[in-house]
TrEMBL record:
UniProt organism field: Gordonia namibiensis NBRC 108229
Assigned protein family: Belongs to the metallo-dependent hydrolases superfamily. Phosphotriesterase family.
Binding sites annotated in the UniProt record for Zn(2+) 2: K144, H177, H206
Necessary cofactors: a divalent metal cation
The protein, known as: N-acylhomoserine lactonase
Superkingdom of this protein's organism: Bacteria
Sites bearing N6-carboxylysine, chain numbering: K144
UniProt keyword annotation of Signal present: no
Keyword Ribosomal protein found: no
GO MF assignments: hydrolase activity; zinc ion binding
Keywords: Hydrolase, Metal-binding
Length: 319
């Protein structure tokens, strides 16, 4: 067993229950919101999130991992307000989300830079994991970084190596946003392993956007967890192909190296909300429980394999 820190306090890993490994509560550019989003109603947004996450709990999900970090608008006091009102665990992350460069706060300070100091990203991530985020008292429980179609840019590499070093030093697991069409999951595995990270404690996120079984099995054979985590985003890959890929990997014995999620959110300011609902109507927290699990069962995926993906794999990720 292991202690897992949530937005409402620490729990035992045995109490995580059924877990969706990649869900956001809010993706909100706070600087933009405070200056330009005149129609923001904080109380209403919190109430909507409480409703959505309570519905998810009613569908049998007990925990979500929320990889909202610097670059995506992480704001823990809002998450705490929500966590206090729901019977569902929200596990938060530390890290930095970029496809290219890093924020200017880190341009000039670091090893070999103008201010030649130890990597401040490692110090920052470690503090979030071991002491808490800002003055909230909430500790992050995992790390997050990203590598997209742009590849291993200097900024992306610096963040990824800092994440790998922090994981090696603290034992915290990692989730990586990847683009499977460029096979960037393999690049992430290589870099993280070079920094001493345990690849069995790494979720290669957005693997579910791919039907390339050879690539997916190569990731899994190296020990990492395949994040089949964009159910509902049918514009990127249709529902049938997503479900068929998971079913086929289960058939080949990979259920113990897959985890499920939607990569959904209660609110995201990247899109017009009504246009989003029309374009991807199933991109919500309910889709896996209501549609995906029945479809997997229809394709011969056993309840034991479903429990493995929803319960055992996330629990092992922290233990």
């Amino acid at each position: 067993m292991a202690t897992v820190h949530t937005a409402a306090g620490p729990i035992d890993s045995a109490d995580l229950g059924k877990v969706l490994v990649h869900e956001h509560v809010f993706i909100v550019g706070e600087e933009f919101r405070q200056n330009y989003q005149d129609d923001w109603d904080e109380d209403a947004k919190v109430a909507e999130a409480v409703r959505d996450l309570s519905e998810l709990k009613d569908l049998g999900i007990d925990t979500i991992l929320d990889p909202t970090v610097l670059g995506l608008g992480r704001y823990i006091p809002r998450i705490q307000r929500i966590a206090e009102q729901i019977d569902l665990n929200i596990v938060v992350a530390t890290g930095l989300y970029t496809y290219n460069d890093i924020p200017f706060q880190f341009h000039y300070a670091g090893p070999g830079l103008l201010f030649d100091v130890p990597e401040p990203l490692v110090e920052m991530f470690t503090k979030d994991l071991t002491e808490g985020i800002a003055d909230t008292g909430v500790r992050a429980a995992f790390l997050k970084c990203a590598i997209e179609a742009e590849g291993l840019t200097p900024g992306v590499e610096r963040v990824m190596r800092a994440v790998g070093q922090t994981s090696a030093q603290t034992g915290a697991p990692i989730t990586v946003h990847t683009n499977p069409h460029t096979q960037s999951g393999l690049v992430a595995q290589k870099v993280l392993a070079e920094e001493g990270a345990d690849l069995t404690k790494v979720v290669i996120g957005h693997s579910g956007d791919s039907v390339d079984l050879d690539y997916l099995m190569q990731i899994a054979d190296a020990g990492s967890i395949l994040g089949m985590d964009r159910f509902g985003l049918d514009l990127l890959l249709p529902f049938e192909e997503r479900v068929n890929t998971v079913a086929e990997l289960c058939k080949r014995g990979y259920a113990d190296r897959m985890a499920l999620a939607h990569d959904a959110s209660c609110f995201i300011d990247w899109f017009d909300q009504e246009a989003k609902k029309q374009a991807v109507p199933k991109w919500n927290y309910r889709h896996i429980s209501e549609d995906v699990l029945p479809a997997l069962r229809e394709r011969g995926v056993s309840d034991a394999d479903i429990t493995t993906m929803l319960v055992d794999v996330p629990r092992r990720y922290f233990e």
